[in-house]
Amino acid sequence: MNPSMSLKIAHFYPDLLNLYGDRGNLITLMKRCEWRGITCTVQAVSLGQAFDASQYDLAFLGGGQDYEQNLLQDDFLSQKGQSIIDAVEDGFVFLCVCGGYQLMGRYYQETNGERIECLGALDIYTEAEEKRLIGDSVSESRHLSSAGYDPLLVGFENHAGRTYLGKQVQPLALVRKGGGNNGQDQTEGAIHNNTYCTYYHGSFLPKNPGMADLLIEKALKRRYKQFEQLMQLDCQMENNARNYLLSCK
Ligand code: GLN
Question: Strand, helix or coil at 96?
Answer without folding.
Answer: strand
